[in-house]
Amino acid sequence: MSAPIPRLEWKAVTKRFGGEPVLDGLNLSVEAGRSLVIIGGSGQGKSVMLKLALGLLRPDAGTVLLDGKPLPGLAGRAQRRLYDRAGVLFQGAALFDSLTVWENVAFRLTNADGVSPAKARIRALAALEQVRLTDAVANLYPAELSGGMQKRVALARAIVADPDVLFFDEPTTGLDPVTASAINALIVDQVKRLGCTAVSITHDLASARVIADDIAMLHAGAIVWRGRSEELATTDNRQVRRFVDGGA
Amino acid sequence: MTLAGAHWLTPVRATGRLALAALATVGAIALFAIRGLTAMFIGPWFPGQALRQFIAIGFYSLPVVGLTAVFTGAALALNIYTGGGRFNAEQIMPQIVALGITRELGPVLAALMLAGRVSATIAAEIGAMRATEQIDAMRTLSTDPFRYLVAPRMAAAMIALPLLTLVADIVGIGGGWLVATLTLDFNPVVYARSTVDFVEAWDVGSGLIKAVVFGFIIALMGCYQGYTASGGARGVGRAATQAMVSAGILIFAMDYVLTTLFTER
Ligand SMILES: Nc1ncnc2c1ncn2[C@@H]1O[C@H](COP(=O)(O)OP(=O)(O)OP(=O)(O)O)[C@@H](O)[C@H]1O
Ligand SMILES: [Mg+2]
């Protein structure tokens, strides 16, 4: 066995809500420095997969491994180690509504990393620029922004501290094509230039093709197909074909 | 017929299930309290958050606490005057009012006003953060919600409530004094003198100890109900109500326990 230890691995993970399994013995892994995109229908459990990988939900069976070591429960050390290196974008942005935009972006810097507010603000503004937001929004509150802008602020918050594992839940949903492709480019840059490992969820197949090295399809509680980005167009897996070709 | 299927066992089983659920809740709250206290005593701390909470909890509660205390002090004075009159003992009214306010009504009234105002607010605030995944997000940002959200609120309430109680003591006794001198022909100076001479440090001190405990209960129930809220906006509303009700009941129960301890000897 000389295969490299994956950065992140879901191993026979089962998760139930109210008795109904959402994930049923799911296996999947990401190698370090690669970008994995998870696709799948609405309500199939993609967001649940991310929360399990972050230890925000606990699997009913199976484990999630970070660098080959299981993520322990609620306040475990390994989990803290993951959080210190992770950048997370939640599907609903999850911005702190009592803090301004720049305070949101700088939250980790000021509250966990002990960076001074002045320095943190400068870094926050730089991160906002990367998601094509200007200084003008820095002092607004999240409630004063559009949905797409909130998403981009959350994205800036995820990348501000130079994480090396990225979790993006639908990073381009609700964005116009120009901004969406800028966000795609940003994700590619994080992975290719900075060597991050990324796990992204998207419904947007164009976006998936751009940002993914590997693509996995979640259906009925398990990964039904996994392949390289370019194989998506040619595979004859039934579920993938249905999903990709849609109504056509 | 097996025992498990017996109809007559249904109420027993239901009661047992209820008791188990209640025990589980008590355990969960106790665990939550320990985590909160640990975060409060072992850093890293967020003093900015604590200050913000102190102002929200303490300063903005001054008007309600003051108003409640002045009216209660006045009404208490009238009642004790009537009661004392039945034994021709009207003259001990200032002492009884002072004792009743400092030992009992000051801390309990201030706490009840805060249970309504503060623990519901805390539950709603934290519950909304739970519902919108802000608490999950905070954890992934390497910041412990117990340190950032729970501990500052606990500390703020445990400091603010004794101070508010002190205000309630003074204003409440003042209310009694006002009624006594304006409508009952007490001499203002004699009344004040007999209050000051009579009240012992322990009368006030025991009330303040109660207030610290009540402050803890108020923050604990608000944080716990908010933190464990589920089910969107309705869940947040439910959390706020439950925080208020459970804090209120616990305050009365703890008041009895503490009074029992304080009046031994
Ligand atoms: N906290 C929860 N409590 C109960 N059920 C949940 C919870 N979270 C998710 N579920 C259920 O799990 C299933 C999968 O949810 P999930 O959010 O992962 O879907 P998804 O694949 O991300 O969908 P979408 O593409 O629409 O975001 C859904 O049926 C949902 O109802
Ligand atoms: Mg989702």
How are the elements arranged and paired?
The complex is a heterodimer of chains A (248) and B (265).
Chain A (H helix, E strand, L loop, with lengths): L7 E10 L2 E11 L4 E6 L5 H8 L7 E6 L2 E2 L6 H9 E4 L11 H5 L1 H5 L5 H14 L16 H13 L5 E5 L7 H16 L4 E5 L3 H7 L2 E6 L2 E7 L9 H8 L3
Parallel strand pairs in A: 3-8, 3-9, 6-7, 7-8
Antiparallel strand pairs in A: 1-2, 1-4, 4-5, 9-10
Helix pairs in contact in A: 5-6
Chain B lengths: L9 H32 L5 H11 L4 H24 L7 H39 L2 H7 L4 H39 L4 H11 L2 H27 L4 H32 L2
The structure holds adenosine-5'-triphosphate and magnesium ion (MG).
What this model shows, in words?
The complex is a heterodimer of chains A (248) and B (265). Chain A is 34% helix and 25% strand. Chain A has 9 helices and 10 strands. The mean pLDDT of chain A is 90. Chain B is mainly alpha-helical and 265 residues long. Chain B has one domain. Chain B is globular, with a radius of gyration of 22 Å. The mean pLDDT of chain B is 93. Chain A binds chain B through residues 51, 54, 56, 75, 80, 83-84, 86, 88, 90, 92, 94-97, 107-108, 111-113, 157, and chain B through 46, 128-129, 132-134, 136-144, 148. Adenosine-5'-triphosphate binds at residues 17, 22, 40, 42-48, 91 of chain A. The site of magnesium ion has 4 residues of chain A, from helix 1.
What about the largest sheet of chain B?
A: none
Unique bound compounds: adenosine-5'-triphosphate, magnesium ion
**Which pair of protein chains has the largest interface, and what are the residue counts?**
A-B, 21 and 16 residues
Poorly predicted regions of chain A: none
Mean of pLDDT of chain A: 90
Query: Structural class per helix/strand content of chain A?
Result: alpha/beta
Question: How many DSSP-defined strands of chain A?
Answer: 10
- Report the strand count of chain B: 0
Shape of chain B: globular
Strand order of the largest sheet of chain A: 6-7-8-3-9-10
Compute the number of helices of chain B: 9
- How widely separated are the two ends of chain B? 59 Å
Sheet of most strands of chain A: 6 strands, mixed
Helix segment tally of chain A: 9
Assembly classification = heterodimer
Share in helix of chain A = 25-40%
Query: Mean of the pLDDT scores of chain B?
Result: 93
Beta strand % of chain A: 25-35%
Spell out the helices and strands of chain B N to C. HHHHHHHHH
Radius of gyration computed on alpha carbons of chain A: 18 Å
